[in-house]
Amino acid sequence: MKPARIPLLAALLAAAGILPSLPAGAAENRVDLQGEWTTDCLKIGKNDRHGVVTRITVRDNRMHAVSQLYAQNGCQQPTLQVRYEGTLDGGLKDRDSLLFAHTVTAITMTPNDGDVVDRYNRDPKGMGCGLSGWKENIPFDVDGRTCAAITFARKGETLFDRAWIDGNRLRFAAFPVKWSNRSPDDRPQSPLETVYYRTSY
Keyword Signal on this protein (predicted)? Predict the structure, then answer.
């Protein structure tokens, strides 16, 4: 199981930041990400044996994301939860996409299964994010830490991203997979495959 590769991870997980000042007359080009967006149950891991559901909620300038990982690819038996909290600045319409930035306020991981706890405590420098003493259903702060294959941004860091909204469908360019897009020049240009569906306004 590779929880770090999951969308939120995607943990992942959700956001805020600072965009350059809008030019005069640009207000009519502003759109937003307000509402709740949720993925389907997505198959992940070796041979697609695990599942994950990610929900992102944007209210005013606050972004909250939760990725729930499951032992089975039908999204049964929760094993790990990744939460992201951030502040959001966005967005400015850019052709068919939305430019925005988000600043990390918290990233936590909570193991929901005893086997996951054991695995993290056996491999603190790898799966365990450099932490020890993992306990079931107890969240650990992982901002700025490397967990398996992913290094999360630090609390207070601003990340620059891009989103595409097509009806009730939303896709991101970076979140919650890439955490190194710390300047507008690092903002990815194409969308990730993961689709979030609007589940409320």
Answer: yes
**Cα pseudo-dihedral 66, 52, 113, 104, rounded to 10:** -30
- Parent domain of 108: 3-200
Structure pTM? 0.83
The residue with greater pLDDT, 22 or 169, is: 169
Q: What is the arithmetic mean of pLDDT over 1-7?
A: 42
Can you give the pLDDT at residue 149? 87
How many domains does the structure of the chain reveal? 1
8 A C-beta contact, residue 143 and residue 155: yes
Q: Do residues 81 and 45 lie in contact, with contact meaning Cβ atoms separated by under 8 Å? A: no
Can you tell me whether residue 125 is helix, strand or coil? coil
Per the omega criterion (within 30 degrees of 0), is the bond before 91 cis? Answer: yes
Alpha-helical segments (H) within the chain: 114-122
What Cα–Cα distance (Å) separates residue 69 from each residue in 12, 50, 96, 119? Answer: 11, 7, 31, 15
Rounded to 10 degrees, the C-alpha dihedral 186/66/39/112 comes to 130
CB neighbour class for 129 (10 Å; exposed up to 12, middle 13-18, buried from 19)? buried
